Amino acid sequence: MELNVKILLSRGMEMPSYATDGSAAVDLRAAIDEGTTVEIAPGERALIPTGIAISPESKNVVAIVAARSGLAIKQGICLANSIGVIDSDYRGEVCVGLYNTSKVPFTVHRGDRIAQMMFMPVYQAKLVEALSLDETARGAGGFGSTGVK
Predict the structure, then answer these.
(1) 75 phi and psi angles, rounded to 5 deg
(2) What's the CA gap between 88 and 61, in Å, rounded?
(3) Residue 49 and residue 45: Cα distance in Å, rounded?
(4) What is the DSSP code (8-state) at residue 72?
(5) How far apart are CA 66 and CA 149, in angstroms?
(6) Over the chain (149 residues), what is each successive 10-residue block's mean pLDDT?
(7) What pLDDT shows up at residue 10?
């Protein structure tokens, strides 16, 4: 799959890249102004620009923005919306909402790897109204209905 990436000159960032040959996602970096930082206080959120806009070659592709596991586990920095969905027809700057779940402030510097972005196929469903649904063993059993063990 090819992905057109527009580097926003006003931000002056480099092309995102995969950290290793086996990486499933590219790293997204903070494109904040040179010499400045963004401090995220405990329990607070911040929207961080990445300096890029994207255009996938197909409308059947979605870019998924996910937290970096090291930031989440070691620093308590997660995505404010759990995952980010970048629709195939969005052409604006990709930004990342970060949330500080820790008890200490977290500082974002220009160029920091703040999230990761992967690409997945999309299937748009044809929604059909139904008066009833087929029966299953689970039925309407909701949260926790299948147990823990």
Answers:
(1) -115, -10
(2) 6
(3) 13
(4) I
(5) 28
(6) 90 90 96 95 98 95 96 97 96 97 98 97 96 90 80
(7) 81
Helix ranges restricted to H, 11-142: 69-70
Q: Tell me the pLDDT tens digit for each residue of 37-70.
A: 999 999 999 999 999 999 999 999 999 999 999 9
What ranges make up the beta strands (E) of the chain?
3-7, 17-18, 26-29, 37-40, 45-49, 52-56, 61-66, 77-79, 84-86, 95-100, 106-109, 113-121
CA-to-CA distance for 86 and 106, rounded, in angstroms?
Answer: 25
Read off the DSSP letter of residue 74: I
Q: Which CATH superfamily is domain 3-121 in?
A: Deoxyuridine triphosphatase (dUTPase) (2.70.40.10)
Return d(Cα 41, Cα 53) in angstroms, integer.
Answer: 28
